[in-house]
């Protein structure tokens, strides 16, 4: 799932008629100062980074004056968290808040439906709200073939304890939020808090939107607003990871290759299928080995994709051996993969006495895969070796080279 | 499962055509295909129609295999469901979640069962029934007949697990990959509900992954005595617990967001419910030997 930056998320809200704070995005302290001076109000400053929990990480600040705003932006720019560097700051008017509410819509895997969740106590972590005062929150499963009817939205707020003129306002807000969530294939849309001002204005003070990567094909307007491949990581993509993401995007209909690096490790890991890779990572570690990376491949990846993956895996510093292992293939031609992997291995002129390689490929087209691997001068394993045994074999061989 | 007459939607695609061939070779009755605009052709001697309605009229299929590309899956599934197809398997990957949710809801209202998306299908050796790419071109070398049912979130590992059993002289009554997506037409628990009443199934094996609450649902189901046959489970991906939260590995379904989805939590819940949990994947056959 891909998270939008907060300014992009709020733009979607504003376009749909939801009130958001006056704001600007700055890359220089001077821009922040100019904005704050014109605004002539206290400001709130948020580092634009693609992950949550920014408040706790000290990436959200407040400023009373334009000078303070400029100074704070200066301090935020260039700050590095989880390897991401702050390059942009969202500067907003600080809304006067008399009351905070919460609303979210998300795809619920258990009910296999959208769920709408509201609380009359916003501003803090929603799990805490629900645990501490369940009577102040309410949720509703929405029929995936229908929409959130306004009367349902109203009922929800009533259950959460909202009455009076505010009820009408927040019903309309919730209805709009659900429409945005639905129209943009969001997997999560959360507004926390919904700020109620002393003048009874309802403003989406903070907002998170995550969209479904698999639906981006029908949302060209989100092009460039989401970073692909980030959902597997806790830090920005490395150069090598970017190469694999790019190879995957270059030939979108020719199978999948995925790659993520670990700190350290010495076993290059070209293993396939989501489930098989997870199991093999556990197995290699259980035998005492240290994978240098995680990877997956499947769905008949092109030779080009597999060559890129192999090159990338072998080029990570500290890699001293290679495990190639796929579960018995149902529909991926393993001879294509075997050809690509052995081609790159040969080009890299590695001495397999010093650089152990274990290749276990069984299933569709394994007879020709065997020929490809052996004619390239490598040892081939198919059904003679279980996945566990191939994990043990690479760990043993790594131990033998010391 | 008694008399499956299979329709393949998107049969003219390269992979679909290859899979159709393998299915027919195995002995599965593929009665028709649909590819809009390509009606009148044949693929592996299977007649192709422009619409599901026409194929239904001519051949009365009762299972549809969806092989169209992701943007067209919703339409293809709704067409199959409207035509009264009782079982629809979605092989296609990367189907938008919103479409999946809508397809499942529409199928439920029409009494159809959806399997997938992102499934390699199912195989039932006793009936020579192979729905989807599962087992590739030579399923015989992976699957032998027996009384164990395998339910897997991973397509690749469903075949691998059958093969592991075969090496130890065990066979399968059914092997199903339920799909790698977070939102699925048929969950592990729903499969157990079906298998509880299947006389050919003596035990179940589950291949589990991080993320979601499917295994926790199974644990509750088994604990409540609603599935009385022995269950063996393996949970892959324990290493992911050492990584920062929110990191997604394996299938999209394998996402760690809260404690509920952690492999260790799943293993605990399953053990508590009386499920035989394999610490290592390769232990599955040995554990089963004592149970069946």
Descriptive notes:
The complex is a heterodimer of chains A (402) and B (292). Chain A contains 12 helices and 18 strands. By secondary structure, chain A is α+β, with helices and mostly antiparallel strands. Chain A has 3 domains: 22-93, 2-Layer Sandwich (Dna Ligase, domain 1); 99-222, D-amino Acid Aminotransferase, Chain A, domain 1, CATH 3.30.470; 237-401, Succinyl-CoA synthetase domains (Rossmann fold), CATH 3.40.50.261. In chain A, α2 (29-39) runs antiparallel to α3 (66-76), α7 runs antiparallel to α9 (303-315) and α8 (274-286) packs across α12. By secondary structure, chain B is an alpha/beta fold. Chain B has 2 domains: 6-115, Rossmann fold; 142-289, 3-Layer(aba) Sandwich (Rossmann fold), CATH 3.40.50. Chain B is built from 9 helices and 14 strands. The two termini of chain B are 23 Å apart.
The CATH topology of the largest domain in chain B = Rossmann fold
Task: Characterize the overall form of chain B.
Answer: globular
In total, the number of strands of chain A is 18
Please report the first level of CATH classification, the CATH class of the largest domain in chain B.
Alpha Beta
Q: Please state the average pLDDT score of chain B.
A: 93
Q: Assign the CATH topology of the largest domain in chain A.
A: Rossmann fold
Topology order of chain A in helix (H) and strand (E) letters: EHEHEEHEEEEEHEHHEEEHEEHEHEHEHH
Low-confidence segments of chain A, given as residue ranges, are: none
Q: What is the CATH superfamily classification of the largest domain in chain A?
A: Succinyl-CoA synthetase domains
Q: Measure the end-to-end span of chain A.
A: 41 Å
